[in-house]
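Fold this complex.
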Amino acid sequence: MPELPEVETVRQGLTQLVVGKTIAKVLVLWPKIIESPEVSAFSHNLVGQKINEISRRGKYLVFHLTDYDLVSHLRMEGKYEFFSEPSSELAAEEITGQLTVQELQDAFTKDELGGFPVTKHTHVLFFFTDGSQLQYHDVRKFGRMALLPKGTAGDYKGIARLGPEPTPEAFTLKEFKVGLLKSHKAIKPLLLDQHLVTGLGNIYVDEALWQAKIHPEQPANTLTDQEISRLRLAIIDVLKRAVAAGGTTIRTYLNALGEAGKFQLSLNVYSQTGKPCPRCGTPIEKIKVAQRGTHFCPTCQKLHQGNGRLVKKGAR
DNA sequence: AATACTACCTGCGTGC
DNA sequence: TGCACGCAGGTAGTAT
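Structure:
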């Protein structure tokens, strides 16, 4: 679920909560979350590792440990939850309430859990030497973790192919323009694939396109110079404002401290179907673009013909 | 190579 | 009430 602003907010919370702590034990309850190495090595290698720093690249979190980089992607529903100490009564209640006896026996014993509450959506437990615990929760189980040699997170497949961070320095107009003009794709799915710039997801791409007054289905290579320039600034601005607001909570997102974001109060189009466009009053429409729900203003964001450059057939 | 579609999962709201 | 279906802050793998 989270896009860059939510991941950055999680990173800040986690930094407060677990930097400086040393891992005493790791339990993996849903093995598919661990991409590499195999689960037994993953758990074993983490014992004794200290968390020195937590950074972010695009929507990826990187835990910098004594001897490893731990890469974590939350995908749609991943969350971290921190417990400063065990609470055995709660644990017993939640276990019996949420897990079948079969599941419980298959996965672990109550003793192993050390008195921490676990639900059927709890998939990875990091026990720290000071008695606290960090849990990874994920209702849809799409999130992934990989434990890599120290200093190699940047070579990890998903991270290596990311475009620049959405800052004025890294995300240059020149490179953005070159990338856009090479693609016939609709602008929205092109921005979602993280190659030209990283960090946008379904909420912020709709917001940025609205801010730049560009139709989500406008072919990338037909954008005018003015539109490209506006779009770049809109992307940088929207993501920056959303980080400052602690992200957007529409349905389920909470940061590592269990708090909701505030950017939903500033949304202009996402989840605003039927409400008046804040610029012109036209009701916001919802359509489907590249299988994703897409919100836009049909008056402010018009599809248009080419940009004056040579346009190949098919662009409209 | 570039683009499009599907799989991966679970829960929730809607309409019959 | 039950059930089928569509939808959800994402990405990777597989077709075309």
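The CA atoms of residues 286 and 295 of chain A lie 5 Å apart.
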